[in-house]
Amino acid sequence: MSPNILVVDDEKFMRESLQKILSKKNYNVEVAENGFVGLKKIEKNSFDLIVTDLKMPEMSGKEFIEKIREKNRYIPIIVITAFGSIPGAVEALKLGGSDFITKPFEITQLLNSIENLLKKKEEKHSVSIKSKIAGESPAIKNAIELTMKGASSDIPILIQGETGVGKELFAKMIYQNSKRSDKKFLSINCGAIPRELIESELFGYKKGAFTGAFQDKDGIFSAADRGTVFLDEIGELSLSAQVKLLRFLENSTFMKVGDVRETKVDVRLICATNKNLKNLITQGKFREDLFYRINIFPIYIPPLRERKDDIEILSKNFLTEIKNSVKIDNEIIKLFKKYNWPGNIRELKHFIERLVIIDTDDNITIDDVPPDFYNGVTQNEIIRSDKIDDYIALKHKVVKTFDYNYFSNLLDQCAWNINKASRLSKLSRKTIYQKMEELGLKRRE
Predict the structure, then answer these.
(1) Which of 86, 132, 289, 331 measures 20 to 30 Å from 369, CA to CA?
(2) Number of neighbouring beta carbons within 10 Å of residue 425
(3) Helices 86-95 and 61-71 meet at what angle, rounded to 10?
(4) Which regions of the chain are under pLDDT 50?
(5) Is the domain 130-300 a CATH 3.40.50.300 member?
(6) Helix 61-71 and helix 35-44: axis angle, to 10°?
(7) What ranges do the domains of the chain cover?
(8) CATH code linked to domain 305-439
């Protein structure tokens, strides 16, 4: 998916100009007229990078950066300042800014800074990939071995596995070990975008192609030329988009929406799905010829319940990543192995994050485990327990656990974009916000 950028500037002309320029470069751009509005947008959506002016009324750029760093230590921040305010920009860097640019500036200077900072962020993220898919079980070792073999070629790869097993992590491992690792890696969740918009997101559109198309825009394939595109949940792709994708796989060309000329690009394709595509073919929802084109090199990622011996190493790796000083009791690991983890590795990580928040002494013990967790270890064990709860209490535990897992996974899949989460879940934005507050869910980086 294209990186999300927030531009904060009190000058309307500046923020609208940057929004227009960056959008043409295939960035998803939102703007805010001051730091207060910027902070509200950060609370509601996930951004990959922030561009902010230094001198603004109501809240200065330095104050804005301080507020961001209280909650997010990692997001890159570019500070724009007038030439005479360089000392202030240097101070802003000390507070947590990542780079600064002085006015007037060439747009290429800003674009280079954005590209470099996003690349550094991706490199830091890649360090933790191996820790998230670590394990000694034969099933995961086989998946990793196939991944490394597939990375060395340029053929399409299809990654199959349940929600939360880490399909995107494997896709990134393929990319990082491929000959295209110095080029772009762009991903898109086909299920998180309305079907009527997916073709324009993938292939771009020409000005005037439809209502609201005020300018030409590149799609993800054009933006990733010479790099790698990862299409997650490929089974959700509309049949018309499947036709275009098949054509691209056959000759590396496509037509933008509203265009009459073909565009040729050089892109390596990785797809992933949590559905049985052969069943979708039988139902007439997925093209058989496309399936054979993307399934040249299939990789199956096993669910966590099939590799429970890996739970201990995964748990400790997540703890190191979240808060290195925290230790976890072996009794909890034993408890984890009794649970089936329907949300797989994603659910395990979220639950450990929850335990870290609950913990008060950097030593997570069995007493820190919330009562609702025991519902999953398993329901039959609870029902047969001597301490069986009354019907209403037990039902409440089941519902609360379901809600926590469902909304955690939903928000992660939609990159914490509430509008997408609302469309996918068919729930109102208000309901999602209420659930986030009720369950204590906050955006994670």
Answers:
(1) 132
(2) 16
(3) 10
(4) 378-388, 445
(5) yes
(6) 20
(7) 4-127, 130-300, 305-439
(8) 1.10.8.60
